[in-house]
Specification:
Chain A is an all-alpha fold. Chain A contains 13 helices and no strands. Chain B is 15% helix and 44% strand. The chains are: A mainly alpha, B mainly beta.
């Protein structure tokens, strides 16, 4: 019994040692002291070691020169130190190496990713206080930017969300911000121009759509976009929402099914919430954003 | 009328050259790309850090590759060494001057 137990222990130790050597071996593969140091710095900045090794290995496989690898690694390290999600940056490096792009293109792309996340993080902090929700909103907003939402339209939405937030409890404010941005992101991903996507979401906010309404509108739009081009559909949705279309009707029956049922509106609507309110974009917002059509 | 018919034919022909579809099957998501007269089709997706997944060719120049279903991910093809973003429902900019397709599972 003792011999058997000892054998198992020895085997276990051997296996764990070999695994450890394999991990260290990854460092050995990268002969350059400077590359190894750059990996260490990335890991210290919060990039998972496995990810740091993986992306560095890919760059070496793609025949990036030593200084190019170090430059990319330094970029990731810097971004991770600023609190930007390392995962997305590493993902961009892996994507770039799979596409065979140059080191310079990779650095430019990383700068774009970092800039998007920095802007999204700043803006999400204005709308959401709770940390994990803030991270979620940051990611959704960054994805929306990647899909084509422009800063000007983001500001338009932010101001409308802040106006709506005045009369809402914290939790509802944050949920509404998250769902408004989910809707905007999906519209942009479907190819709806940034301006049109923001206008539609803005109309929904003005008509006092709540979190559930936003979810319903998103689902309904996704369903309807199977049969109608999204860039055409967005105009129809904007008109319907502005006219007070009921989101439950939209979700059940799509745009074609909305009947006479309209959303109940409060007389104390601070967003000019009467029938046809928002005929000119930005009316009643008080923030000076969105003065009519941008003429895109 | 003749011109219209010719245009339709050309469009159909071009669409047939590299049409793309995703189908959910028992083994996962089946990506199908119609690409005639090409030597290799590789799918890259963010699920596994964009590792190359070689597609196998079926009849009529349809290349097929299966990936696990479940999460949302980005993807693109490399056809004969050239990056190809097929016509797909959800897209985003890739920061390299092109676009990526997005697979969103619940849609």
């Amino acid at each position: 019994m003792r011999i058997w137990l000892s054998t198992v222990c020895v085997l276990f130790l051997l296996v764990t040692q070999v695994q450890g050597e394999d991990k260290e071996g990854d460092f050995v593969l990268m002969e350059s002291q400077q590359i190894r140091a750059s990996i260490r710095h990335m890991v210290q900045a919060g990039v998972p070691k496995e990810q740091a090794l993986k992306m560095t290995r890919r760059m070496i496989q793609n025949r990036f020169r030593e200084e190019q690898v170090i430059r990319v690694n330094a970029k990731i390290q810097k971004s991770a130190e600023l609190g930007l999600p390392a995962e997305d940056l590493v993902d961009k490096v892996l994507e770039g190496t799979a596409k065979g792009v140059s080191a310079q293109s990779l650095v430019t792309a990383l700068e774009r990713v970092a800039a998007r996340h920095a802007l999204a993080a700043k803006e999400s902090g204005l709308l959401v206080r709770e940390r994990s929700r803030q991270r979620t909103l940051t990611r959704i907003m960054a994805q929306a930017f990647a899909a084509g939402v422009e800063e000007e339209d983001m500001l338009r939405l932010r101001n409308q969300l802040l106006l709506r937030a005045r009369n809402l409890p914290d939790q509802e404010q944050e949920d509404l911000a998250l769902e408004t941005w989910r809707l905007t992101r999906e519209l942009a991903r479907l190819g709806v121009p940034s301006f049109d996507a923001a206008i539609m979401a803005n109309h929904a906010l003005r008509q006092r759509y709540n979190t559930i309404d936003m979810i319903r509108v998103r689902r309904s739009f996704l369903k309807d976009s199977m049969n109608t081009p999204p860039d055409i559909l967005v105009g129809r949705y904007s008109v319907a929402i502005r006219a007070g279309a009921d989101s439950e009707d939209l979700e059940k029956n799509g745009l074609s099914g909305i009947g006479g049922k309209q959303r109940p509106r409060s007389s104390s609507d601070p967003f000019g919430g009467g029938q046809g309110a928002g005929g000119s974009e930005g009316s009643g917002s008080g923030h000076g954003h969105g003065g009519g059509s941008r003429g895109r | 009328m003749k011109l219209y018919a010719v245009c339709c034919f050309v469009l159909l022909f071009l669409a047939g050259c590299s049409s793309h579809s995703v189908k959910r099957g028992p083994e996962g998501l089946q990506f199908r790309l119609r690409a005639k007269d090409v030597r290799s089709v590789v799918l890259h997706c963010s699920l596994d850090g964009y590792l190359p997944r070689r597609a196998s060719v079926e009849e009529n120049g349809v290349w097929v590759v299966t990936v696990p279903a479940g999460h949302a991910f980005r993807y693109f093809y490399v056809v004969d060494g050239k990056v190809l973003t097929p016509d797909c429902r959800f897209k985003e900019r890739d920061d390299f001057g092109n676009e990526n397709c997005l697979y969103v599972p619940f849609l």
